[in-house]
Amino acid sequence: MLVNAAGILRMGATDQLSAEDWQQTFAVNVGGAFNLFQQTMAQFRRQRGGAIVTVASDAAHTPRIGMSAYGASKAALKSLALTVGLELAGSGVRCNLVSPGSTDTDMQRTLWVSDDAEQQRIRGFGEQFKLGIPLGKIARPQEIANTILFLASSHASHITLQDIVVDGGSTLGA
């Protein structure tokens, strides 16, 4: 089993984001997974089975203002993981993604600039054309972990090449 869950977030409007932030975001968010895939694919083929779960983001599905590097890197990660899944499917290896939405993590909290920021995220930002979260709460890390554990388990033995979005409905399945 392999779980790819590394990621960084560099915020900024596309025309104000530094080239260094752009490159670092791609190096960590896509390059790290690429390196792991290169180092492990032969072993997965030899063992004729296994599960790979890659953590992307709902930002790969729905663009967000000020998140061009993050969203683009997670979309690239999604494409990479699905390509690897196609390449390994014939060896019985299942490759899936989990794309969390807003989750109560340190990374998420760095985005909150006011005391009521969590509630603002839940309600949405109409001026930025962002929906709120229909379930009325942000995810707990354990909810994301449970989805990863399910996809890695034998309970998901016939699930591959899927991207499970865990966002409380905020992307409406986009």
Automatic annotation (TrEMBL):
What this protein catalyses is: (2S,3S)-2,3-dihydroxy-2,3-dihydrobenzoate + NAD(+) = 2,3-dihydroxybenzoate + NADH + H(+)
Q: Which Pfam families match?
A: adh_short_C2
Concerning InterPro entries, the annotation shows: DHB_DH, NAD(P)-bd_dom_sf, Sc_DH/Rdtase_CS, SDR_fam
- This chain belongs to the protein called 2,3-dihydro-2,3-dihydroxybenzoate dehydrogenase
Pathway info: Siderophore biosynthesis
Q: Which family does it belong to?
A: Belongs to the short-chain dehydrogenases/reductases (SDR) family.
EC number annotated for this UniProt entry: 1.3.1.28
The protein's matches in Gene3D superfamilies, at most eight in alphabetical order, are given as:
NAD(P)-binding Rossmann-like Domain
Keywords of this protein's UniProt record, alphabetized? NAD, Oxidoreductase
Q: Which GO BP terms apply?
A: siderophore biosynthetic process
Which species expresses this protein natively?
A: Klebsiella pneumoniae
The keyword Oxidoreductase belongs to this UniProt entry's keyword annotation: yes
Any one GO MF annotation of this record: 2,3-dihydro-2,3-dihydroxybenzoate dehydrogenase activity
Which EC class does it fall in?
Answer: oxidoreductase
Q: Which domain of life is it from?
A: Bacteria
